[in-house]
């Protein structure tokens, strides 16, 4: 099933950081996708940003339709990715997560000629707010 692209909400601070990322990695294979998402994003001041919008540094619980698995990851810049609990904003799933809100679903290219649907289950802006995944949910590594 293909879903229309949901609205994307990005903080003004993250938008500026991501524009610098685009300028720094002009030849990266994912830059065109990231630019497209930035172009369609609603850029918000801090007090206007929806609390459940995935931002850089957000900890996100999401599900991929291709496997049905649920993942818990922190969205980070490529140079901040230090372990498996991080997901780079330049990865296919990382870009899909950017700016979405709880309940949003988006079809996103996962590999050449294939796509998966990413569904946002929960978003926390502060890693310390997480205690554990919701009951009865298996959290897997990407």
TrEMBL record:
<dbReference type="Pfam" id="PF14760">
    <property type="entry name" value="Rnk_N"/>
</dbReference>
<dbReference type="InterPro" id="IPR001437">
    <property type="entry name" value="Tscrpt_elong_fac_GreA/B_C"/>
</dbReference>
<keyword id="KW-0418">Kinase</keyword>
<feature type="domain" description="Transcription elongation factor GreA/GreB C-terminal">
    <location>
        <begin position="50"/>
        <end position="124"/>
    </location>
</feature>
<protein>
    <submittedName>
        <fullName>Nucleoside diphosphate kinase regulator</fullName>
    </submittedName>
</protein>
<feature type="domain" description="Regulator of nucleoside diphosphate kinase N-terminal">
    <location>
        <begin position="6"/>
        <end position="43"/>
    </location>
</feature>
<dbReference type="InterPro" id="IPR018151">
    <property type="entry name" value="TF_GreA/GreB_CS"/>
</dbReference>
<dbReference type="GO" id="GO:0006354">
    <property type="term" value="P:DNA-templated transcription elongation"/>
</dbReference>
<dbReference type="InterPro" id="IPR029462">
    <property type="entry name" value="Rnk_N"/>
</dbReference>
<dbReference type="InterPro" id="IPR023459">
    <property type="entry name" value="Tscrpt_elong_fac_GreA/B_fam"/>
</dbReference>
<dbReference type="GO" id="GO:0070063">
    <property type="term" value="F:RNA polymerase binding"/>
</dbReference>
<dbReference type="InterPro" id="IPR036953">
    <property type="entry name" value="GreA/GreB_C_sf"/>
</dbReference>
<keyword id="KW-0808">Transferase</keyword>
<dbReference type="GO" id="GO:0032784">
    <property type="term" value="P:regulation of DNA-templated transcription elongation"/>
</dbReference>
<dbReference type="Pfam" id="PF01272">
    <property type="entry name" value="GreA_GreB"/>
</dbReference>
<dbReference type="GO" id="GO:0003677">
    <property type="term" value="F:DNA binding"/>
</dbReference>
<dbReference type="GO" id="GO:0016301">
    <property type="term" value="F:kinase activity"/>
</dbReference>
């Amino acid at each position: 099933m293909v879903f229309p692209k949901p609205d994307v909400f990005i903080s003004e601070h993250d938008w500026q950081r991501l524009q610098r990322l685009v300028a720094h990695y002009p030849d990266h294979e994912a830059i065109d996708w990231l630019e497209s998402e930035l172009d369609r994003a609603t850029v918000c001041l801090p007090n206007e940003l929806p609390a459940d919008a995935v931002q850089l540094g957000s900890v996100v619980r999401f599900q991929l339709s291709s496997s049905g698995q649920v993942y818990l990851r922190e969205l980070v810049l490529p140079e901040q990715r230090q372990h498996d609990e991080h997901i780079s904003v330049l990865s296919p799933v990382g870009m899909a997560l950017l700016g979405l809100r709880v309940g949003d679903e988006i079809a996103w290219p996962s590999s050449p000629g294939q796509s998966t649907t990413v569904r946002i289950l929960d978003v926390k802006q502060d890693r310390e707010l997480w205690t554990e995944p919701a009951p009865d949910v298996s959290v897997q590594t990407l």
